[in-house]
Design a protein that fits this description.
Oligomer: single chain
Structural class: mainly alpha
Number of strands: 2
Largest sheet: 2 strands, parallel
Number of helices: 4
Order of helices and strands: EHHHHE
Distance between the termini: 15 Å
Strand content: under 5%
Radius of gyration: 18 Å
Shape: flat
Length: 144
């Protein structure tokens, strides 16, 4: 039986990704760092969001016996780990206050968490809407 994510969980997921990304970007906009540093952190954020969605999709595909090449699976995980390392090294060496470093780290983590849950909800909603020909559609709404 397929379960559709609740509207509350869907909304919370979107709020998490939007709050994380907006917080990170607004922090960069207001930062006194050079433009190349801002570009570095922005690129790490965007790459991290893409990598997180790729990892979630690969893991889910494998659980559902959908073919995923070992190369793409490995690249997804390496990309996710690389973004975390790049952000960590960048913040470690940055001339920012510890509170600013923490802000960027947690905004990044919130964004990644939000991206993963939005992808999960999208996939669950699509799976719920796929109905086998000739069978009645069950309506099951659960809180995740």
């Amino acid at each position: 039986m397929k379960q559709k994510p609740s509207m509350a969980f869907i909304a919370a997921s979107w709020i998490a990704v939007i709050a994380g990304v907006l917080g990170f970007i607004i922090g960069l906009w207001n930062a006194t760092m050079q433009l190349n540093e801002k570009g570095y952190y922005f690129t790490v954020l965007m790459y991290g969001l893409f990598a997180a969605v790729s990892v979630q999709k690969c893991v889910r595909d494998r659980l559902e016996a959908i073919p995923v090449t070992d190369l793409y699976y490995a690249l997804s995980w390496v990309s996710m780990l690389l973004t975390i390392v790049l952000l960590t090294v960048g913040l470690w060496n940055a001339t920012l206050a510890p509170s600013e470093k923490g802000f960027y780290a947690f905004a990044f983590l919130l964004s990644v968490f939000g991206a993963i849950t939005v992808q999960k909800n999208t996939r669950d909603s699509q799976a719920f809407n796929i109905v086998a020909p000739g069978s009645p559609k069950e309506t099951v709404n659960t809180n995740n």
